[in-house]
Amino acid sequence: MFDFKNKVVVITGGSSGIGKALVNLFLEQGAKVAACGRDFDRLYQLQALHPNLPLFIYTADVSLESDCKAFIEKTIKTFGTIDVIINNAGISMRALFAETEIETLKKSMDINFWGAVYCTKYALPYITLNKGIIVGVSSIAGFRGLPGRSGYSASKFALNGWLETIRTELMNEGISVITVCPGFTASNIRKVALNKNAQPEDDSKLDEQKLMSAEECASHIYKAMRLKKRTLILTMQGKETVFLNRFLPKLADKLVHKFYFKNGELVK
Ligand SMILES: NC(=O)c1ccc[n+]([C@@H]2O[C@H](COP(=O)([O-])OP(=O)(O)OC[C@H]3O[C@@H](n4cnc5c(N)ncnc54)[C@H](OP(=O)(O)O)[C@@H]3O)[C@@H](O)[C@H]2O)c1
After folding, report:
1. Which atom of ligand 1 approaches the CA of 184 most closely?
2. Is residue 248 part of a domain?
3. Per the domain annotation, does 74 fall within a domain?
4. Is residue 240, in this structure, part of any structural domain at all?
5. In total, how many domains does the chain have?
6. What is the mean pLDDT of residues 163-191?
7. pLDDT-derived band of residue 251, with 50, 70 and 90 as boundaries?
8. Domain that residue 189 falls in
9. What is the pLDDT of residues 110-139, one digit of tens each?
10. Of the residues 126, 152, 222, 260, which is catalytic?
11. Can you say how many angstroms the Cα of residue 2 is from the centroid of all Cα atoms in its chain?
12. DSSP notation for 56-71
């Protein structure tokens, strides 16, 4: 089992939701953690919770290659190496494709897919030396296209394909590449999901209280990383969706449509 004590763990999107829960968990386990996000205040508040622990925070927009490069370089300056990267930063969207500006889809790809590619590219030489772990936080939407989330699903399908490729390429290097697919998890993601004009809009109808907590999700991810699992699919609903889509795709089309639409309107 992989031991994270004194290991350097990079977490993108560490200021909120699943990423924040991962930061707290890896610090508790004795890791040195580097976390990024766009909002400095939220990162600073997180750091203030752990005054005596090795947490490096950096303001970076992962959709910008130069920010990702600088984040990884500053992490190396701070901790000297990188053992693990968790590509977690992400945004969602909520708008029908026919009504959506292309910008909404592009932003989803830039953050959810390219952000992971940029950060991993610059961290890879160190992870290779340390025979470390690369994690991509994808989604059930990376296995099954979801209505209102065309750009989000596309970015997560792209992420899954890229992770599968590098897992195979790096097979004999002792590096683990893990695809993590949370189901619905309580976080900030739906409050800032992009609308059809690529602007954040809180228009979710889901009751966050009924969803898996970000802490539970982080704990499942941690366990999967300890065991160097290949894929982690979370929540019963998530597992059922992936299973059904694989073996009965036509039925999955109907059931997914029923879940997301009422009287022809997107409801979730
Ligand atoms: N919650 C769910 O139901 C769910 C389900 C499946 C998959 N996921 C995936 O889980 C991951 C984490 O999401 P979450 O649910 O925890 O959402 P969240 O609470 O909104 O957190 C997202 C994190 O990503 C950061 N982020 C967003 N855009 C960024 C950018 N351009 N550059 C750098 N950081 C950025 C945010 O910080 P700033 O805003 O400060 O940049 C924040 O720290 C995402 O990849 C998401 O797709 C979530």
Report:
1. 3
2. no
3. yes
4. no
5. 1
6. 97
7. very high
8. 8-235
9. 999 999 999 999 999 999 999 999 999 999
10. 152
11. 21
12. EEEE--TTSHHHHHHH
